[in-house]
Amino acid sequence: MATKREYYFDNAKFILIFLVVFGHFIQPFIDDHKIIMTIYHFVYSFHMPAFILVSGYFAKGFKKEGYIKKTAKKLLIPYLIFQLIYTIYYYFLYNGQSLFFEPFNPQWSLWFLISLFCWNVMLYGYTKLPMKWSLALAVIVGVGVGYIPFVENYLSLSRTFVFFPLFLLGFYCKKEHFTALKRPAVQVGSAVLLLAIFIGYYFVPDFNTGWLLGSKSYETLSQENLGGLIRLAVYAISIVMTIAFYSLLPKNKYFFTSWGTHTLYVYLLHGFVIKYFRNSDWLDVINDTGNFASLVFVSLLLTLLLSSKTIRAITQPLIELRISIIKRFFRVKQEGY
């Protein structure tokens, strides 16, 4: 039986993957609506850092025999499969976009699979250093990579180095660290902090969202001189918001908890719907009516749908390279006769 601690992290994964979907739905509207821009900046300041941190937390077994091979099978093979599928999909969606298959330039959100594999491999080198030095080195590299103009989307190199400090921090986290965050005083402070940051984002001048994506060089972001300091500030905001998120995260089981174990399906599949939405008339309908609240419901519905057993049974051969769900279905059906 699952423990409350496991419920806690399943809750985190579900909420975070919902925010991924929601963030992608609202992105086309950020330039025309201040409140949507504020929500977008707020969500993007912590949702992927929090996702990456929990991924690092569960990477403690990286030295076990066969771990890297298993991780490669889990991440790289689905990456190549969906890189090809998305290439074909975009060709038809965008009326003849190039069908050239580029395995080393991730299509849109597929960057996470390459980076996650790289982070697991990078643990072998970084964990040979004392914790404080390995974290310091990861931050230095994450800041320094922004000064290299050609390191951006290729092999997801920029994001790999920029977000690695969060993964490494998660690796070093222990159960008691998360337990300590549940103290009432910490939770009250976390709620106040998140509210203050949200209000602050609303009133500060608009800034390039590329700072939150980790995929652009300082030259591309037009901040060659102050880029390093800005990235350090982004690190600070992301870390405190991630801590606040885990402090306020519920630890009991809810109706959505079990769906938190199927986030890879949502992550890989939601892009088909998002890209279709952005290329459809629905974009103008939402923008003209201002019915942005409906996107919360649509995002939740899509997250639940893509987590469903039916969708997982259909797509499991592509994502997990097996058909265990279908086998169980037919086995149960046969036993019923």
TrEMBL record:
Acyltransferase domain segment(s): 7-306
Record InterPro entries: Acyl_transf_3_dom, Nod_factor_acetyltransferase
Keywords attached to this entry: Acyltransferase, Membrane, Transferase, Transmembrane, Transmembrane helix
A Pfam family assignment: Acyl_transf_3
Transmembrane residue ranges: 12-30, 36-54, 75-93, 108-126, 133-150, 156-173, 185-204, 229-249, 256-277, 289-306
Location(s), subcellular: Membrane
Family to which this protein belongs: Belongs to the acyltransferase 3 family.
Protein name per the record: Acyltransferase family protein
UniProt source species: Bacillus timonensis
